[in-house]
Specification:
Number of helices: 4
Order of helices and strands: HHHH
Shape: elongated
Structural class: mainly alpha
Helix content: 55-70%
Mean pLDDT: 75
Keywords: Membrane, Transmembrane, Transmembrane helix
Number of strands: 0
Low-confidence stretches: none
Length: 95
């Protein structure tokens, strides 16, 4: 026999990874825990430096609102974001 190895059957290439889903589907429990700890640490740090509680809540609320808006927009929730913006605009106008 020769020293040439026997031909192995051709194996198909692995299928491509599926496209990433909406941002909210990729936002798992680990990410939520990390953000929760970051918010707790930020709030505790601000409080220990003498920042008034009203300012701490305002800053953390603003961070949360920006994060929620980012996840909504990135996750394909543009219709939801548009509806919320329209409702906020109507409330500001007084309709």
């Amino acid at each position: 026999m020769s020293s040439i190895p026997a031909a192995t059957p051709h194996t198909p290439a692995p299928a491509a990874l599926p496209a990433a889903g909406p941002a909210d589907a990729r936002f798992g429990p680990t990410h939520q825990l990390i953000l929760l700890l970051a918010f707790l640490g930020l709030g505790a740090g601000l409080f220990t430096t003498g920042t008034p509680m009203n300012s701490v809540f305002t800053l953390l609320g603003g961070c949360g609102a920006i994060g929620a808006a980012t996840i909504t927009t990135a996750g394909g929730g543009r219709r939801l974001a548009r509806a919320l913006a329209e409702a906020a605009l109507r409330a500001a106008v007084g309709q």
